[in-house]
Amino acid sequence: MRARAPLASAPVVPGRALLGVADRTGLVPFARGLAAEGVELVATSGTAAVLAAEGLTPRPVEELTGFAPLFGGRVKTLHPAIHGGILFRRDDPGDEAEREASGILPIDLVCVNLYRFREAIAAGADGAAALEAIDIGGPTLLRAGAKNHPHVVVVSDPAQYPEVLDAVRAGGVPAALRRRLAAAAFAHTAAYDAAVAQHLLHPGGPDGWPAELTVGGPRLAELRYGENPHQRGALYQTGAGPGGLAAAVLHQGPQLSFTNWLDCDAAWAAVRDWPQPAAVVVKHANPCGFATAEDLATAFRLARACDPRAAYGGIVGSNRPIDAATARLLAQGFLEAVVCPGAAADALGHLARKPRLRVLAIPDPAAAPEGAVPRLDVRSVLGGLLVQTADPGGPDPATWRSVGERPPSAAELADLAVAWHLAQAVRSNAIVLASQGQGVGIGAGQMSRVEAAELAVRRAGPRAPGSVMASDAFIPMPDTVEVAIAAGVTSIVQPGGSVQDDQVTAAARGAGIAMLHTGRRHFRH
Known about the structure:
The chain has 525 residues and is an alpha/beta fold.
């Protein structure tokens, strides 16, 4: 075996490597390469069996510890002979003397990856099965190797094998690479523990908010760019198992940018819970068109017709798989992306005529990401994270209270449900006009609610008379109702709760407008 360099700044030439991996990708070539450089291999039982089948002869861990695995394999590497060999400081004479006196062999390279906890949870493991999927020895080995990275090489990902092996062959693993590998190992164990914590305790649930929030997960993709081309971006998985939009399969088109993902999220959120076939068109995270109909093609055609100019270059969301009829309509104009629960083979054939159109299919739209129930809305502020449970949304007209001169008709109530559903997906202040299952006018993100109403009416144009209106928060003054009256709106739904509710309601009653209070607002900032 090669001699090790005693200085922390010097390259580490490993003399002995400990291998214990659940993911065997690339394991044999990596181990063979280390052995060819004179590195002695020590392996846990499962890893040793794989290597032995390929003609390698690693020493079993129990030769170093003097113990066979205990408690069904729960205890294998948790022993001073292992952790002492990793953690002693090579440039400390006292540590070196203590190691020799204890008969502990140096371990200079730790190659470990962890039990597949996320995959086990995603496959339905719970209770005792979930507990057995939690790795203890693996994270401990990685943390020990990472803590002592001035003297030890820690390898936590098969993707790191080529670079590490190249460095060993070139004369040793340099300090900068060891530090980078250590950071990756700590990030890996932190994300792993976060997945376990999120599985055991749902933040914001009945047990309240935990004293420390754990959010983390593996990188799923590097983005084309961030919010602007000069910014970088990436997509990470959160929770114990993959799910939701982050697990979507890209069938065609270029990789998504940061804003593409945000728009796709807004599109999917606007349609996923609607019971009937529905389609939405989103621009800059705001719906510019929404409709529900008996079939998806009609729903999309009506959604695009809400604001055809704004729909150019938009993101389309559907809550039904894309069929051939809908695909033909989607292929007629310029769109950035379509997010949907899937697409028929002939539909994908039509969409392929638009090679720049991204088609994102969500594999199991009914499944919420494990470990994220209730789903969390996490946003950053300078130096911190704001975290809240997600707004469940969903119109429930049975809970609404009529305060107008008359109750709404059945047709009005159906359109009020559409308008209220859509208002929840629009940036505040939000006003939405709807008619016959179609959003016909949307006023988004205005500083004044009456200006949002004026914008919605202007966009509805001749479709405003006979439509209904929804406001995402209470209508503070009668002026918004007066805009609705002038436009020919017949019914309004709003949370209620303004100090001027009496005047707002009186304005509606005086014009014969039905008004409903939901008792719940839906700000979206």
